[in-house]
Design goal:
Heat Shock Protein 90, 36% helix
């Protein structure tokens, strides 16, 4: 054909500035676009061959070659795919598949990198102009009698097209890089980017450097392939070594037998895996393959706890593998990675519009061909199809966890400390996930046993029957009334009627309370993670028939003997006067009780809601906020059966009454939380005074 020049058929001359500024947030993505186009061209040729519409060479094998040339500042991407005719270049390149250029410019003129538009308008090829000042296309179509075509454009709206000299079917795209993007012609940078975007593309991809010296390797003659280029035939003589005999003499023994080797030009190795693990069925994959894939993809050499293989063909196509890494730390410091693919082409990491947010604590790959490769995140947010995908992924993970709890309870318990942040975070973020997992959430109790929420409630209900109920029994009529009341979820339940679930946040600090619970055959669960406060609050909102109370919240209700309110009136009056006068704390409430444990003189309780609010404020302060302490009022519970409390009640005018009272308060405080520096100094000083009294 004669040389042809013209202008690209677009409706705006500003198209290339738009491409460079708004089309992609990362310039390196041109590698993905051009290589994936090359893979598509190969796939099309292979399909035509299978359909009998073209005859493939006997030795045909689709491949993409990326050649970098740092000296010439070029990148060549070559495929042996379907190729293009002059008409096809004119149709697909010169007439940009771009509908509504004006609307595009108007819609995206103010958009930044957060709204990444990946070739949504058929502009994948033109990503080349993000890094190149000049682009060549050399192509030869598979069609009989087709002529090679050469096309070039310098990034403006003008192009030149003429007969080319390419003599093999396929396409070569040559990029002449601009000065700002020369790094992409560096072999190591190119490999890094190709690993990022093209590691699992379905066609073998090879990376070469122009004019690089040949590399060699040695092989056994029996391993020679027809494609191998033999440089030298090598004969290696046998090797012997001296071996000392029992009689002290030495003899020559064979160390390495003689062998023949072939020195060949090093075989090219593709940079990608065309059959990634997620494309196989779970039955085809071994445990070691799952672990190897995890190490390779995520560069994490700690073994994952377990994994979930996703494989769905209807109503949408989705495959993937979700790994549960070893976490065992606070959820807010965990950073996972979920890689999203489209037909083995990498899209992005952690696209929360497709993947549930709480999955960001995990690691995995998800391949969904039904999702467009080139799509805006704003479009994904309102896509009902995307919502179905997200729900499916969440359901499959929940099903896996539930199945493990039912059939592999011991394993589930072993993993619980590591996976609990993910599950709790998921419950906070997704009601459907929470509904499914509600009965399979584990709680570790103070006896180091794991129980589910239903088991915990059943156990707690059995252990908290009142003495009156045990003595009198409960009439069938009363039972019916109670059951009916619980069924009416729309009716608010009084706090005192809710089942109390006690919990521990610090096993060491709250050891005294734990001992009291154990001594009285009572149970509590350990909730010592940052996420737990929010988690239990959510559980309470979802079910009005139980509440969580920290083990020190209201100890008197849990561990007090039943007494007539008038029985302890005198003790209450006397002891309240002593402690109020000595401590001078206006917000301190004094309660006198008969505790079931006689060894404990005094304990401090705090209102659960106030304490939770204080904990949240402390978290806010840790994150840079300026919040003062808001711990709320305290309740000092005095055990009237303890000798020291009895002494104070009977000797209120003793010169040491104040000393003992203050010491009892500080001891109770220490069982609740650490003392302030000044208070700790006073405590030590007072302890010394008390010991001095013992010496007199």
């Amino acid at each position: 054909m004669s040389e042809k020049s013209g202008s690209l058929s677009i409706t705006s001359e500003n198209i290339f500035p738009v491409i460079k500024k708004w089309l992609y947030s990362d310039h390196d993505i041109f590698y993905r676009e051009l290589v994936s186009n090359a893979c598509d061209a190969i796939t099309k040729r292979e399909k035509l061959g299978m359909m009998g519409e073209t005859e493939l060479p006997d030795d045909y094998k689709g491949k993409v070659t990326v050649e970098v040339d740092p000296e010439k500042k070029t990148i060549k991407i070559t495929d042996n795919g379907i190729g293009m005719t002059e008409d096809e270049v004119d149709k697909y390149i010169n007439q940009i598949a771009f509908s509504g250029a004006t609307d595009f410019l108007e819609k995206y003129k103010d958009k930044g990198s957060d709204d990444q538009i990946i070739g949504h308008f058929g502009l994948g090829f033109y990503s080349a102009f993000m890094v190149a000042d000049l682009v060549y296309i050399d192509s030869l179509s598979y069609q009989d009698g087709a002529k090679a075509v050469h096309w070039e454009c310098d990034g403006g709206t003008d192009y030149t097209m003429k007969d080319g000299d390419k003599d093999t079917v396929g396409t070569t795209i040559t990029l002449f890089l601009n000065d700002d993007c020369l790094e992409f012609a560096n072999e190591y940078k190119a490999r890094e980017v190709l690993d990022k975007y093209c590691s699992f593309m379905p066609t073998e991809i090879y990376l070469t450097k122009a004019n690089a010296p040949e590399e060699y390797e040695e092989i056994d003659p029996s391993d020679k392939k027809d494609t191998d280029k033999v440089v030298e035939e090598i004969h290696k003589e046998a090797e012997y070594e001296d071996k000392k005999k029992d009689d002290g003499t030495t003899e020559k023994v064979l160390k390495t037998p003689a062998k023949d080797k072939l020195k060949i030009v090093k075989r090219p190795v593709p940079i990608n895996d065309i059959h990634p693990l997620w494309t196989k069925t779970p039955s085809e994959c071994s445990e070691e393959e799952y672990k190897d894939f995890y190490r390779k993809v995520f560069m994490d050499y700690r073994e994952p706890l377990f994994w979930i293989h996703l494989n769905m063909d209807y109503p949408f196509n989705l495959k993937g593998i979700i790994y549960f890494p070893k976490i065992n730390s606070e959820y807010d410091s965990i950073e996972g990675t979920i890689k999203l693919y489209n037909n083995q082409v990498f899209v992005a990491d952690n696209i929360k519009e497709v993947i549930p947010e709480y999955f960001m604590l995990l690691k995995g790959v998800i391949d969904c061909p039904d999702l467009p490769l080139n799509v805006s995140r704003s479009a994904l947010q309102n896509d009902g199809f995307v919502t179905k995908i997200r729900d499916y992924i969440s359901k499959k993970v929940a099903d896996k966890l539930i199945g493990m709890e039912k059939t592999e309870k011991e394993t589930y318990e072993k993993y619980w400390d590591d996976i609990s942040p993910f599950i709790k975070y998921g419950c906070l973020k997704d009601e459907k996930f929470c509904d499914k997992m509600n009965d399979y959430i584990l709680f570790k109790d103070i006896n180091d046993k794991y129980v589910t929420l239903p088991e915990l409630l059943e156990k707690d209900a059995a252990s908290h029957k009142s003495e009156d109920e045990k003595a009198k029994g409960e009439s069938e009529e009363k039972k019916d009334e109670t059951e009916k009341k619980e069924e009416k979820s729309d009716e608010p339940v009084k706090e005192e009627d809710k089942t109390a679930i006690y919990y521990v946040t610090d096993v060491k600090q709250q050891g005294q309370y734990i001992d009291m619970f154990k001594a009285n055959d009572m149970d509590a669960v350990i909730l010592d993670r940052t996420i737990d406060t929010s988690f239990i609050t959510q559980l309470e909102h979802r079910n009005q028939h139980y509440r969580f109370l920290r083990i020190d919240a209201d100890i008197s209700k849990a561990l007090s003997e039943k007494t007539d309110p008038k029985e302890l009136e005198d003790e209450q009056k006397t002891l309240e006067e002593i402690f109020k006068n000595e401590l001078k704390k206006d917000d301190l409430t004094i309660k006198v009780e008969k505790l079931k444990t006689e060894d404990i003189a005094a304990v401090i309780g705090r209102d659960e809601n106030m304490r939770r609010m204080n904990d949240m404020m402390k978290m806010y302060q840790m994150n840079g906020g300026d919040m003062s302490d808001f711990s709320g009022p305290e309740t000092l519970v005095l055990n009237v059966t303890h000798p020291l409390v009895k002494y104070l009640n009977e000797h209120k005018d003793s010169e040491n009454a104040g000393l003992i009272a203050h010491q009892l308060y500080d001891l109770a405080e220490l069982s609740n939380q650490p003392l302030a520096p000044a208070e700790m100094s006073e405590f030590v000083k007072r302890s010394n005074q008390i010991m001095e009294l013992l010496t007199k």
